[in-house]
Amino acid sequence: MPNTPTSTVYPPASEVMPQTTKLLKSSPRTAHGYTPFVTTRTNIAPASLTTALVLFLLPATLFTLAIHLVGPVMRLHGSTWWVTYHVILVLPMALLLAAALVALRLETHSLSWPRVRDRFRLRRLNRSGWLWSMALAGFMYGGNVGDGIALVGSGLALWIESRKNAFLWPLIAGFTWAKRNLGALQPLLEKIRFYEQSEFVKEFLSRFGPGDFMGIPLAGAWWLVFYYAAILLIFNVGGEELWWRGYVLPRQELACGKWAWIVHGALWAVFHIFFQPTLWDMVRMCPTCLALAFVCQRLQNTWPGVIGHTFGNMPFLLQLVRGAAN
Q1: DSSP type of residue 193
Q2: How far is 302 from 36, CA to CA, in rounded Å?
Q3: Is omega for the bond preceding 210 within 30 degrees of 0, making it cis?
Q4: CA distance 272 to 276
Q5: Boundaries of every domain in the chain
Q6: What is the pLDDT of residue 162?
């Protein structure tokens, strides 16, 4: 299970609150309907780079062991792909969700909805927030249409917020252009290998349709589509977003200030090492990981991450839909 603080001695509010207040005053987002969560009852412990490494690398280790060690052993002993999938991928994702809730309970001594909403930053989005979410969803999905939506949505959001923020749009456009042309580095970065991808992992990744889903034929099996959609939303997106953007990112903001999204996004890309045999596989994830962290920090809200993450993983779901429709 990912690391959760059990005996951390939190700094007094007198030390944490000035940092938080300084961070909020330096951000224009508070002028547009967002009230960043700053509790007066329970301190949020800042996550230094060392702490952040632990919070990211422990889950990465769990997933790596599950996929590269437990999975092959299970298959060697006759386990079906269906059972193997639930043990090596669904279970670790469920543990990530559980870790977020355990961390919240340890921090606030409550799992009430107001506590969950405020600590995990799940407050209602306003008009600008929905536009940012739309832009992020397009950026995460990619392609000409997706990137076009990203540019239009972010431009409208910045215009609604303040014309003083208009300078950000050219930076967003440049970042989108860089993402679209990142493939130029692929031949070079693919030469740097972290490990050889096993035949087990290759076959495992091929079991996400369109012919079958984990050994079960997809043709006409719409229940599999709905089942995977539930797994995607509850454990994959829900688990990661509550842990990364809900629990970890606010702690990083207290330590890294306005640059927390860069550290967070880079570490989130590294977290996926279990599916990244080369440096290229890691680098190509950086634009989307950074963009998602940026929007969530800018809005002080996790909902854009939930929406963007869902659209980022949509190709897997659409592949199952195509298989079921045949």
Answers
A1: B
A2: 11
A3: yes
A4: 7
A5: 53-325
A6: 82
